[in-house]
Amino acid sequence: MFKEIKERLKKYAVEIKTLKNRRKATRGSEESKILQLKYHFRHIHISLSEIRGRTREQIEKPSINNPANEDYICKIKTEILQKIKDEQIIRSNEN
Q: How is the chain split into domains, by residue range?
């Protein structure tokens, strides 16, 4: 489960980097996609880190004007925890 999420984060990071490099050439058309990917990356990263026991202060120090979307973080955490629970049920049924 965590490996799956980390792979998604890596994919986002690579895509962000690629789009940033392309943005220099195409200016503007890629900007919204970059911002969207950065938004998802940040919130998935926060969610996963909190599930693993890190405090928000250990994860990031955002500016006052850039708070995280707590509702979105809760939604992501709920989805991750549900997947973990489902995987544990599947494993217990296999034994």
A: 2-94
